[in-house]
Amino acid sequence: MKNIIIIFLAILTIGCKNKASDKINNQANNSNQPNTEVETNSDTSDPQEIIFNDGKQPKIEFDMKVWEFGEINEGESVDTIFKFKNVGNAPLIISNAKAGCGCTVPKWPKDPIAPGENGEIQVKFNSKGKPGTTNKNVTLTMNTTPNTMQLRLVGKVIPTTKE
Q1: Which of 8, 84, 134, 135 is 20 to 30 A from 55, alpha carbon to alpha carbon?
Q2: Is residue 40 part of a domain?
Q3: Nearest-CA neighbor of 148 among 136, 163, 137, 133?
């Protein structure tokens, strides 16, 4: 059994000598396609820090990142729109918008947002069964640096009185 583990570790070590970026660079250099390689920033261990060789990168700016809806009665639904603009110089792609629970539902544009163009993230919150102070997050996954961002809905849900 020890021999199998030693052989497995040896194979794993030998197989992992090349970094993923080396494989990407080799594929890019061996193809007839234009060079689209990316480099990771060696000054940081953060895998989200990606530098595009052509210098083009999307950048998102929101009119607000936190929406305070005030007080609502339990069972009511509220919705808002987070407006944004791609202020970068490459198309912005929002690949996912995920809420922490099923009571908060985001809708986001599935098509790329061109540089200089505007977009919207619609978010609906259903307060049924959620009395008290509320702080709901929507996490966006995008092709920006960093590649995630959170939008928040905050307020107070007044519990229903039971008679």
Answers
A1: 84
A2: yes
A3: 137
